[in-house]
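Q: Sequence in, structure out?
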Amino acid sequence: MKLTRIIEHCRPKDIIGNADIEIARLEIDSRKVGKGTAFVAMRGTQVDGHNYIGKAIELGASAIVCEKLPETLSENVTYLQYDNTEDAVGLLATEFYGNPTKRMKLIGVTGTNGKTTIATTLYNIVRHMGIKAGLCSTVCNYIDGKPYPTECTTPDPITLNHLLGDMADAGCEYAFMEVSSHSVAQKRIGGLTFAGGLFTNLTRDHLDYHKTFENYRDAKKAFFDLLPKDAFAITNADDRNGMVMTQNTKATVKTYSMRGVADFRAKILEESFEGMNLLFDNTEVFVQFVGRFNVQNLLAVYGALRMMGIDQQEALIELSAMKPVNGRFETIRSNNGVTAIVDYAHTPDAIANVLSTINEVLQGKGQCWTVCGAGGNRDKGKRPLMAQEAVKQSDHVIITSDNPRFENPQDIINDMLAGLTPEDMQKTISITDRREAIRTACMMARPGDAVLVAGKGHEDYQIIQGVKHHFDDHEVIREAFDLK
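A: Exactly. Output:
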C-alpha cells in the first residue's frame, strides 16, 4: 500500500523524504522489520522504540514513524513525525489493513471478571447459528473456527488490526473481543469502530500498572466514552460502577440485573454442579453453567444477542446449548464422588464468587478444599486479600505457586499467608509445588467434597524464572483421580 494512503486520515506534523512509496508491512518490533517496512517507534513501559530506529533501518525499513527525529537521517528512508506515536499507530494500522471494523461488526467486552466467558460464548453462539465470526480473547484467537495462539488479552494495534483484517477478509460478519484496561490506556484499540460494548464488573486488579483503582476504573470507562452513537452499551446494574461506565457514552444504553429493575433480568431457580434452571425475562431455561457470576455473564450475552436482533426464544435456545468456557468453572468428577472445579479466578473477588457458588451447591453436605496462589511480578497488594477470601469460604486451604515468573515462589506464598490470622492458619497449609498441592487436596477430599483449583484455568503452562514449562491443572486432577 502507498504510504500516502496509509497516512491519509492520520496526517503527521512533518514528512521528510518521499511519501509516495510502497509499504509492505507495519511493525513496532524492530526485530521483525524487513524490506519495505514502516517501523513505528513507540515509547513503551519497558523500552523506547526510538532507540531501535537505527536497527530497523539496517534491516530494511523504508519509513520511520517517530516522535523525535534521529540526529542523523538516512537517505532513501522516509520519516514521519507525530506528537504521539501511541495515538497514531492504531489509525495507521486500521488504514493499512483495510479498515476491518467498517467491514464487520465488532463487539467489545470489558470488566475485571467474565470477559472471556462472555466473548467466547457470544462467538460460539453466533457460529452455532451458522454466522461467520471471529474471536480475540485471553485463551485463543479464532477466525471462523480456525485457532490462532494469543500472547495477551488485547494485542498491540498492528497485530490486532492484522487479525481483524483477516477476519473481515474471511467473510466474518461479527468479531468479539476482550478489551483489557491496558489496551484502552495504551490506545491499542485506537482507530477501531465498535458496534457494541459490554461491561461485566469492576474489582481490584492490575494496580501494579494503573497505580490506583480510580485510574483502573477510568480506563474501563474510556472504552464506553469512545463508542459511537449507533452502537449499544450493555452494563451490569448490579455493580456499583455499572452506571458510571455508561454515563458519558453516546451509545444506546441497556442494563442487566439479578436484583433490580433492568432491561434484561434473570434469577436462579435451581442449581447443581451440572448446571442451573434460570428464569430469564419470565421464561424458564436450563443452562450448563454454574454460579451467580455466570448468570450475570449469561445476562450480558443474552442482552448482546437481543441488541444484535436475535429474538428471545432463539437466544435462550442457544444459551441452553452452550457449555462453559475452558478453565471457567470446569468440573471434573472422581469415581468416588469428589468434584474438582478448575477456574481462572485470580483476583480476591473472583475467588469469593467461585467459592460462594461452590458452597451454595454443597449446602453444607460436603467440605470445600481450595488450592490457590498468586502470580509473580504482579500486584502484590492483592495477595493477602486472595488468601483471606479463600479462607473465609473454605474448610481447607492450600496456598501454592501460580506463575511465579521471576519471583521466588516462597516469597509470594509468604505474602499471601501474611494476610491470615492464627485462627485462619489452623485450616491452611502451604505446598510450594503446585502439582503436589493439587494432588494433596484431591487425595484428602472425601466423597461429596469439592476441590477448587484456582488461578490458572485454561493455561497449560507455568512460568518459572521467565521460562514456560508445561503444566495443566486438568491433567494433574485427572491423574490424582486416576481418570483415563
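The chain is about 35% helix and 20% strand.
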